[in-house]
Design brief:
single chain; 208 residues; mainly alpha; Rossmann fold; 7 helices
């Protein structure tokens, strides 16, 4: 949401891509529609891609989402190569749309240890996109913007507030309880910590 808000502020028309990959937190698909409307997206594509057929993650298989706090190791909520797959699809979407600026909301500071959020991954992917696309080899490379990458969650909460975005429209929880966020998964803990440190109200309704 904040990455899209920044793109809009920079003068870009937002063409949003949401991947319905069979995630257990399907509530985020509803949120994506609300966010696309909030940032006045010119286009919002929801693309089905059933990663449950691969499994290998608590988000796509029958594996419990951990609730014991944020650790140092890569957690079981890591979806194999998710951002690699998502960025590849986004480059295809961009090239077909005639766009060359791609925004992704990855974060490498207050995060759960995912390797596909790190700066070196984003930089290497930009080069891969240049080498592997018609536009790239024709001298029209894709620019991968990761404006939230080196922000804390508190910084991101403040940026949402500065941009006038309603944080309640966004969704972070990995293991929702109906329409409510669980409040205890890593993603909920990091979100709560960020808003608390920023001194801002979240608006998310948590279970219990």
């Amino acid at each position: 949401m904040v990455a899209a808000g920044i793109a809009r502020e920079m003068g870009f028309a937002v063409h949003a891509l949401t991947i319905d990959y069979g995630q257990r937190h399907r509530r985020e698909l509803q949120s994506a529609k609300a966010v696309a409307a909030m940032v006045s997206a010119a286009q919002h594509v929801i693309m089905p891609l059933d990663l449950r057929q691969f499994g290998g993650s608590a988000l796509t298989a029958d594996i419990d989402v951990p609730k014991d706090g944020v650790g140092a190791d890569i957690p079981v909520t890591y979806v194999p190569a998710r951002n690699l797959v998502f960025l590849a699809l986004t480059v295809a979407f961009a090239e077909a749309s005639g766009a060359h600026d791609i925004f992704i909301g990855v974060n490498a500071l207050d995060y759960s240890g995912y390797p596909d959020c790190r700066p070196e991954f984003i930089a290497s992917f930009a080069e891969t996109a240049r080498l592997g696309t018609r536009d790239g080899v024709s001298g029209r490379p894709f620019r991968i913007h990761a404006p939230l990458q080196m922000m804390t969650k508190a910084d991101i909460a403040r940026e949402a507030d500065r941009l006038g975005l309603d944080p309640a429209a966004s969704w972070s929880c990995y293991d929702p309880v109906g329409e409510r966020a669980c409040g205890t998964c890593d993603s909920c803990r990091l979100r709560q910590k960020g808003f608390a440190e920023a001194g801002l109200l979240d608006g998310t309704i948590y279970a219990g």
